[in-house]
Amino acid sequence: MANKKPLVSIVMPTYNCAAYLPESIESILAQTYDTYEVVVIDDGSADNTKLVLEPYMEKIRYIDLGRNEGLPTARNLGIQSAKGEYVAFLDADDIWMPEKLEMSIDQFMKNPDAGMVYSKHINIDSKSQFMEGKIMRRLPSGNIFTQLFFEQNFIICSSVVVRKEVFNKTALFDSELVNCQDWDMWLRIAFYYKAIGIDVPLVKYRHSSKSLSKNRDNVLKYQKVIIDKIYTMFKDSENGISEKMYKKRLAAHYAKIGRHYMRMGDKIAARENFRLSLKMDPVNIRTLRYYLFHS
Prior knowledge:
Blueprint: E1 8-14, H1 21-29, E2 36-42, H2 49-53, E3 61-64, H3 71-81, E4 86-89, E5 95-96, H4 100-110, E6 114-124, E7 130-131, H5 145-150, E8 161-163, H6 167-170, H7 181-192, E9 194-206, H8 216-234, H9 243-264, H10 267-280, H11 285-294
Parallel strand pairs: 1-2, 1-4, 2-3, 6-9
Antiparallel strand pairs: 4-8, 5-9, 6-7, 6-8
Helix pairs in contact: 8-9, 9-10, 10-11
């Protein structure tokens, strides 16, 4: 008798994404892996989301929050409602390649100690047309915690599949975070578990003017919140973040903010952030040059 395929719970939060929902849901229905459930959490949409979902109601589980609670709350409700052994995330405006779930579950079968599997992606615009964008040449696998902490988040949420039992260890998404909640979650998972990166683009990641990630100032603010949070959480743990590592990471972050303000033409803010960076890492030649000559 063949082994029964594990159930995957697909968590799809949506907020005013009626225009993109059919394409996203159709990408689920086209999966080569067929043992899944779809949990759609309507985060207080004010558009015609319910009407658009009507043809799919027999194929999905629809939860209406009634008001806008935010992505972390919507995703957490999806996780709590999930019946599957695995939880996959798909944002309502993104699209999966047909092999997305099959290749992800295959990696879990090959790596029983992995807590998370993720993949590469391609970028698309509001009309689903391909966009140029920087993508890592090779995704890291194994113990990726330190690399994920030192680099900006390189894991696209819609590419991630997690063993549901992992959340018993890590807890759920932080509902206090307005932005960067996904980076915070992946860091917590990566601290406790191995992660497997699939070097194949299995997601079409949509860029739109409404995207939270477009608000650069907000992203930079919450990246600092995450850096502080993860350091505080794991500084006293084995293989955690040392004070030296923390200061080096902060220095890199302040330098990035400085370069951002320099591009925006705000020399005063740029210089102040380069100063803060050098306070944490005085011997960084690149930042010193920016501080002395470019701001």
